[in-house]
Amino acid sequence: MIFPQKHSATGTTIFTVMSALAQQCNAINLSQGFPDYPIDEQLGKLLFEATQQGFNQYAPMPGLPQLRQAISNDFAKRYGVEINPDTEITITPGATYAIYTAFTSVLEAGDEVIVLEPAYDSYIPNIETNGAKVVPVPLSAPDFSVDWNKVKDAITRKTKVIIVNTPHNPTGAIWSRQDWDTLADIVRDTNIIILSDEVYEQLVFDGKKHCSVLQHDELRKRSFVLYSFGKVFHNTGWKMGYCIAPSEFTIAFRRIHQFLCFSVNSPAQYALAQYLSLPQLPDVSRMMQQKRDLFLSLLKETPFIIHQPASGSYFQTVSYAQISDKPDMEFAQWLTKEHGVATIPISAFYSNKKDDKLIRFCFAKKEETLQQAIERLRKL
Ligand code: PMP
Ligand code: GLN
After folding, report:
1. Which tens digits make up the pLDDT trace of 18-42?
2. Which ligand 2 atom sits closest to the C-alpha of 170?
3. Is 257 exposed, middle or buried (0-12, 13-18, 19+ CB in 10 A)?
4. Ligand 2 pocket residue status of 169, Cβ below 6 Å
5. What is the total count of domains within the chain?
6. Residue 330 maps to which CATH number?
C-alpha cells in the first residue's frame, strides 16, 4: 500500500520524540511544553460536577453558549474588545486543531503562506496538506524580531495568509503595537489573511502586556485568532481551545469544523465556562514569571548562554555553542541520555533544519523540578 505524502515533515513530531526519550532515559523532561504540577482543584471539581449535571452528550457545533459568552466577557474585561459570542467564537479541541481548521477554511492549491521561522512545528504540515506553498521568512537573532523588509519581499500575488505567533514559541519574543502597525501597512492593499496564534497570551512578563491582533481594529477584520485553554489553566491534556474571527471568517471556519469534529467535549466546556466566570482567577503571568526568574537565575550556574530572556510563553531558548559543536538534535539526545535533562533542538522549528546551536527549555515546572534539572546541568 502506498500512502500519499501530504506534507514534507518526515517521522514523528519532535515533542513526541523528546518526551519518549526522556521517559526511556528517566530524564527530567523540560522538552515538550506542559506543566508538571496539578491544575486548580476547583477546575477539576467543576469537570466532575459537569458529568453529574448531565453534560455528557454532544454540545452545540460552535460550542456551549455559556462558554462562548464567558470568553466574550473575559476579552471585554481584559482587552476592552467586543466579541460576538454567537458569530465570532468557535470552541475547538485545542489550538493545534484550530490552526489546521483555519488554514483549511481559506487555503487552495497554489496559495502561498508566509511563515516566520523558527515556527511551531504544525504550521508547515498543515499548509502543505492543503496543497499550499510555504514561504519561510527568518526572524532576526538574537532577539527574534521581524525583519519587515524580508516580509515585504516575500509577498507575491499568491500570498493568501501570514501566520503570526506572539508570545512566540520557541523564543519567548513578543510583538509590540508597532509590529502590528507595520504589518497593517504592508497588507493594507491586499487580501492577505492573518492567522494569529496567541496561545500564550496570558504568559507575558516584566510588566509588559500582550498585544493582541483583536485590539488592532484594522487587522482584526482579516484575522483568525487562535487560543488554548491548556496554556492558561495548566490542563494541556484537556485539549480545549477556541478560534475568534469576524463572522464571515467564522462561517468559513465552521464549514470545515462541523465535518471535522462536529463538536467539542461537553463536560470540559461546562467546567471551563463556570471557571472562567469566577470573580477572581489565579494570576498565571505572575506565577510563570516567578518560574522564569528562578530558571534564569539557576541557568547562570551552567555554561549555557542566554542571549535573550523570554518576554513571554513558558520557554527559554539558550545557546550551547560553548559546550559542544554537535548538531542540536544530537546535542539534545546526548543531554537527555548522558545528563538526564530533555530539551527541544531549535532546528526542529525550521523548514531547512537550520542549526544555530540552540535548544529550548520548558520552565512550566515545579520549583524542585527546575532545581533538580540545574543540579544535573551544573556538571556540564
Ligand atoms: N501554538 C503554539 C505556538 C503552541 O506552542 C501550542 C502548544 N501545543 C499550540 C499552538 C497548540 O495548543 P493545543 O495544545 O491547545 O493544541
Ligand atoms: N506546544 C508544546 C510545545 O511546544 C507542545 C506541543 C505538542 O506536543 N504538540 O512543546
Report:
1. 999 999 999 999 999 999 999 999 9
2. 4
3. buried
4. yes
5. 2
6. 3.90.1150.10
